[in-house]
Design brief:
Helices cover about 40% and strands about 20% of the residues. By secondary structure, the chain is of the alpha+beta class. The strands form two sheets. A seven-stranded mixed sheet has the order 2-1-5-4-3-8-9.
């Protein structure tokens, strides 16, 4: 009987340790991931000041987004699938919103400023809705913007001495006050995308 009791005590101890480790892992993921939540009140710390240049050549900062809800996405013009797919999705959603589409800002921030000049962004965005704004800047400015939005990116060398970019594939949603309102995942259903944008516009 005593051996059974010891086994139960050991089992309970291992379960407690496992739960503690699992809880720590979950907290780490929540605190580091794109939908980052703080431990206090579950508020999201995403977004902040940035200073970049629009594809039109004009300076563009976080203050240019004040007063309108907006959707912001990080990518690069040489992206083979995620970026053109996401930008095409946003183009379709803006069209489906009809007149309400004018109330939403859609922003595409390059993570490859070495290649993505203002001119290249301008040419690239001609394939998508004219209301989408492309942003670039110095590597330091882009890194700061990605940092405040908790976006991930890194340069990945390829054969022949070239490189590609690995990056977050989420569209970040913000209300007119600049408060983080959630995300749209890559290849999320069209119905879900549209519903989220409508809720954002109604806030």
């Amino acid at each position: 009987m005593r051996s059974d009791l010891l086994r139960r005590i050991r089992l309970a101890a291992w379960i407690a340790v496992a739960l503690a480790l699992t809880g720590a892992g979950v907290y780490f993921l929540l605190s580091r991931g794109p939908d980052i939540r703080t431990a206090i009140g579950g508020a999201a710390r995403v977004g902040g000041p940035f200073d970049l240049t629009a594809h039109t050549g004009k300076p563009f900062t976080d203050q240019d987004l004040v007063g309108k809800p907006y959707a912001l996405f990080f990518g690069f013009t040489h992206c083979p699938d995620v970026c053109p797919t996401t930008l095409l999705d946003m183009t379709h959603r803006l069209q489906e919103l009809q007149a309400d589409g004018d109330k939403l800002r859609v922003v595409f921030v390059t993570v490859d400023p070495e290649k993505d000049t203002e001119h290249l962004l301008k040419e690239y965005l001609k394939s998508f809705d004219r209301r989408i704004v492309g942003l670039t800047g110095t590597p330091e400015q882009v890194a700061n913007t990605a940092k405040v939005y908790r976006a991930y990116y890194r340069k990945v060398p390829t054969s022949g001495g070239d490189y590609t970019m690995d990056h977050s594939a989420l569209v970040y949603l913000f209300d007119a006050k600049g408060s983080f309102a959630g995300t749209i995942a890559y290849q999320e259903s069209e119905q879900s995308q549209l519903a989220k944008l409508k809720r954002l516009l109604a806030r």
